Amino acid sequence: MSRPGSFAIVLRLAVAACLGWIFYGCAPATESPSPCTPPGSASVAPSGQPGQLDIFHKPLATGIYTADPSAHVFDGKLYIYTSHDLDTNRPDDQLGGQYDMEDYHVLSLTDMHSPAVDLGEILNVKDVPWAVQQMWAPDAAFKNGTYYLYFPAKDDQGIFRIGVATSSSPAGPFVAEKEPIPGSFSIDPAVFVDDDGQAYMYFGGLWGGQLEKWQSGSYDALGAVPASPQKAIGPRVARLSDDMLSFDGPVGEVTILDGEGQPVVEGDFNHHFFEGPWVHKHKGTYYLSYSVGEAQYMAYATSDDPLGPFTFRGYVLPPVQGWTTHGSIVEFQGEWYLFYHDASLSHIDHKRCAKVAPLTYNADGTIQLITP
Ligand code: FUB
């Protein structure tokens, strides 16, 4: 996890803020909605097609700040599980403390021409026995008639763990297990269920996400990102047990290879893994998308094995407003989409809004760069 801090980032946000005020012409959202951002409603604009709305590249929800959208199709409907950035101003503690979140919401879409609906809170930190703070990026999965919500949070030692909660409905509410998943650590769980029913959890994030503190296999408060040009730290992957509540076997590290077939190294800020892993499958190929961190691109790599290694192929999304980038890729009603977030609704780095954009594959399986 990350923090802003450079003059360049501040300048970029300031310019974006000016443009936003010019183009949107309305006040940024607050937790008490402004006249142009009614609570629980979605932001939409006419597309020119009678009766249809253009929802692409616009905040899906404007009544609250939403981030880290994880999109899934359940029962023919699209559900977007999001973090909820509170409208608070905790100071930047260099560990992402300003990303102040205590609950999750789920939005739903029936098609890509209707407004998203905020179905409300589905889990709150006060209902998670082991969690204390920072309910960061979640994901969801469905198996054997049950819906699962996976989420990271800090425990009473200030260490990120990953928890799971269950529900009989994709809209929740979810009931959390009493303890985090044994052997889990760091942030940003993303669960991929393969065609054979085997589920995998990918997870991890550097800096505030603490992944570099787990290189020895246990938590080392002094653990640091290796110096360049040592092999970059990769996201973690674990098979999930059939009941989806625990890891089935050891946690492995995913290797990302560069164009020459060599592992990506630390210091290679255009390619290395930073946070926000997401895996989807397209025409038999596994795609791992992730934030590269410092260079602020959302990159992707491919493999013919869900455990990797994955080979870097390019970028899905260029830098967006705000320091973080985090997204999910999903097929819905025969088309592919990227869900992502930026800071365009508030123009404040840690008050983000989830958005959606169409995603296009080239004939060779590469993904066209999306222009926000
Ligand atoms: O939303 C909190 C953190 O910001 C997520 O866990 C990271 O992926 C980044 O988006």
Detailed description of the structure:
The chain is mainly beta and 372 residues long. It has one domain (7-28, 65-359): Tachylectin-2, Chain A (5 Propeller). 5% of the residues lie in helices and 34% in strands. It has one helix and 22 strands. The chain has one helix at residues 7-24; strands at residues 45-46, 53-54, 65-74, 77-85, 103-109, 117-124, 139-143, 146-154, 160-167, 175-176, 190-193, 199-203, 236-239, 252-253, 256-257, 275-282, 285-291, 298-303, 310-317, 328-332, 335-342, 353-359. Beta-L-arabinofuranose (FUB) binds next to strand 3 and strand 16. The site of beta-L-arabinofuranose has 14 residues, from strand 3 and strand 16.
Briefly summarize what is shown.
With 372 residues, this protein is mainly β. It is built from one helix and 22 strands.
Which helices and strands occur, and which strands form pairs?
Layout: H1 7-24, E1 45-46, E2 53-54, E3 65-74, E4 77-85, E5 103-109, E6 117-124, E7 139-143, E8 146-154, E9 160-167, E10 175-176, E11 190-193, E12 199-203, E13 236-239, E14 252-253, E15 256-257, E16 275-282, E17 285-291, E18 298-303, E19 310-317, E20 328-332, E21 335-342, E22 353-359
Parallel strand pairs: 15-19
Antiparallel strand pairs: 1-2, 3-4, 4-5, 5-6, 7-8, 8-9, 9-10, 11-12, 12-13, 13-14, 16-17, 17-18, 18-19, 20-21, 21-22
The protein binds beta-L-arabinofuranose.
Helix content: under 10%
The SS-based structural class is mainly beta
The strand count comes to 22
Strand-residue fraction? 25-35%
Overview features:
disordered N terminus, binds beta-L-arabinofuranose, mainly beta, 372 residues, five-stranded mixed beta sheet, Tachylectin-2, Chain A, globular
